[in-house]
Design brief:
It is built from 12 helices and 8 strands. By secondary structure, the chain is an alpha/beta fold. The chain folds into 2 domains: about 170 residues, Zn-dependent exopeptidases (Aminopeptidase, 3-Layer(aba) Sandwich); about 130 residues, Orthogonal Bundle (Muramoyl-pentapeptide Carboxypeptidase, domain 1). The longest helix has 19 residues. The chain starts with a strand and ends with a helix.
């Protein structure tokens, strides 16, 4: 299970930027909690640095992320400037950021631009403690200027849209398809609907066909895998939707030229992790390429063969 640390900037006696009765710390917390809730519904483990109006030292925020071996760290902020004309959204990374952090930042920035912002201020490299001291790929989002009234209007009226696209983009950065495209599309995903429908029809999963991939859908996919292993290879697995040692040991290698329902399960697992494949039950060149891309992203040997370790990473 992927882990994302959600950091609501400032808090307690540290109000952050202020515009009259509007405090940055409150906006940060509202958005952080909304995004975290959406990520949890998609089966991602969320760890918050704060969930209430308390002060958390900068190094403690990084320590929380490091102790939880996070896959991604995201800090939420609002910007401020002496000139009230200043506006727009920007995403920050450390000056020596990893490629993964930079890619996550660029994807997030583009998702918000597509959703609608006053101006695109781009991705910038900075030397900030929470980015520098955090082991995981770390990004900091400046979601509009608190001293610009139109940015505040957008923050309030587009709040749910922003929370949706932020969650979708962050999820995709850790290999989870959380509905939509992660690029500003907030509609449920039609392919995920198709996967859910097939799981219902073929394996009696009883899922809500809502186009949003969450823990119940993931468990149904594992059950489908166990059923197929039992039917085709006599694996004798308990069909419980839990990818444990016995299920892992029963996996059969799939490679280019393989066909059948196990290939479909592989393709569905790739798709919901953000590696788009055609669900045709045929292990062709595109599926092989997506398997290699998934293996590379998860620190596996990129041989294009879907074996025990690849399936374990797909099903967690």
């Amino acid at each position: 299970m992927a882990t994302i640390v959600i950091d609501a900037g400032h808090g307690g006696y540290d109000a952050g930027a202020v515009n009259g009765t509007r405090f940055e710390k409150n906006d940060n917390l509202r958005m952080a909690l909304a995004v975290g809730e959406r990520l949890q519904k998609c089966g991602i483990k969320v760890v918050y640095t704060r969930t209430s109006d308390v002060f958390v030292p900068l190094l403690e925020r990084s320590r929380i992320s490091n102790n939880n071996n996070a896959d991604l760290f995201v800090s939420f902020h609002r910007n401020s400037a002496s000139n009230p004309i200043a506006n727009g959204v920007e995403t920050l990374v450390y000056i020596n950021a990893s490629n993964k952090a930079l890619q996550a930042a660029e994807a997030l920035q583009q998702a918000l631009v597509n959703a609608g912002v006053q101006s695109n201020r781009g991705v910038k490299r900075v030397n900030l403690s929470v980015l520098r001291e955090t082991n995981a790929p770390a990004i900091l989002l400046e979601l509009g200027f608190i001293n610009n009234e139109q940015d505040n209007v957008l923050f309030d009226t587009q709040f749910n849209t922003y929370a949706d696209v932020i969650a979708q983009s962050l999820a995709k950065s850790v290999g989870v398809n959380c509905g939509g495209s992660g690029n500003g599309d907030t509609t449920p995903n039609a392919t995920i609907r198709n996967i859910q429908s097939t799981l219902n029809a073929r394996y009696g999963a009883g899922l809500s066909v809502d186009g949003i991939w969450g823990p119940l859908s993931q468990k149904a996919l594992i059950r489908a895998l166990q059923i197929e292993l039992n039917m085709n290879y006599g694996a004798g697995l308990i069909v419980d939707g839990i990818f444990g040692p016995r299920t892992k040991a029963a996996i059969r290698n799939l490679s280019q030229g393989s066909r059948g329902n196990l290939v479909w399960i592989l393709q569905a697992g790739l798709f919901v992790k953000g590696f788009e494949t055609t669900l045709d039950s045929i292990f062709g060149a595109n599926t092989a390429n997506q398997v290699r891309a998934f293996q590379t992203a998860n620190g596996l040997i990129a041989d294009g063969i879907a074996g025990t370790n690849t399936f374990e990473a797909l099903m967690r």
